[in-house]
Amino acid sequence: MKSKCLPLFLGALALLSLSVARAQDYTPKPGYTVLLELQVKADGTVEEVKILDSDDETGDAVLQRAAAGAAFRIKLPVREKDGKPVAYKAQAPIYFPVDGDEGLEANNAPKPKIRTAPQIVYPAGMAEKGIVGGAILELIIGANGNISSTKLMRASHPEFATAAVEGVKHWSFVPALKNNEPVESRWRVAITFATDMQDADWMWRVAPRPSLGSYTVVRRVAPIPAAPAAPTGLSITPPAAPAPEKK
Fold first, then answer.
1. For 189-212, how does the pLDDT look when each residue is reduced to its tens digit (9 = 90+)?
2. What is the residue extent of each domain of the chain?
3. Which of 22, 38, 90, 228 lies in the 20 to 30 Å Cα band around 122?
């Protein structure tokens, strides 16, 4: 299943040069936003990036790093003073659209905590090929702390969808509390499959709100290369034992 997030994100970046001068007019949309302050050189290239505000919930600042990296790759309009190009500062909101996101307020609902979360198995065929990706799930967690329903919202590959859905069946939670009483709750989680050498794209590391987070990452350990086989037709003789020392 192919996500619509990436084309929308790229479109947002294409409009960045038009929006930096009107950052105050920006209206938040479902998804995550990182507000940047850009130090722009006289030729329109970005020299420095500062994070002013962010609702990035990922532990390793996935969206903040993606926003900053994108800002360095664009060229903004040249500004002039007295007929000469000058350096300037601008604020730029970078919007990461996430399908199904219900906004920041959705995370204010009573939230459960993970009690046990056995490791999810990386599909063998995908691991062997070094394919990365993920799945976004919606979980209904009962007042008893068990998952009563699992819904697949989207996945990069069918194999990852199956592995994620089967894997979370073995999770259990400390239920959400309301007025000190356990209650049923609804939360989303990003299950990410990444190798030692490559991370999955941000869209598989960020769950739409209400979000349990993107802290669950399943990694494959790169296999140790096998020793090269001896050429056929040759025999290998082990080295002779050292001669005994003379006394």
1. 999 999 888 889 999 999 999 999
2. 5-97, 104-220
3. 228
- CATH 3.30.420 for domain 5-97, yes or no, is no
User: What average pLDDT does this structure show over 149-154?
Assistant: 97
Q: Can you tell me the distance from the alpha carbon of 156 to that of 211, in angstroms, rounded to the nearest whole number?
A: 19
Q: Is the fold of 5-97 the same as that of 104-220?
A: no
Count the neighbouring beta carbons within 10 Å of the beta carbon of residue 6. Answer: 13
Q: Specify the DSSP class assigned to residue 89.
A: E
Check: CB of residue 36 under 8 Å from CB of residue 49: yes
Close Cβ partners of 29 (under 8 Å, ≥ 6 residues apart):
95, 97
Fold of 104-220: TolA/TonB C-terminal domain (3.30.2420)
Longest CA–CA separation in the chain, Å:
95
Q: Do 204 and 133 form a contact (C-beta atoms < 8 A)? A: yes
Check if the beta carbon of residue 45 is closer than 8 Å to that of residue 75: yes
Share of the chain above pLDDT 70, in %: 76
Q: Which residue has the tokens 């060229």?
A: 75
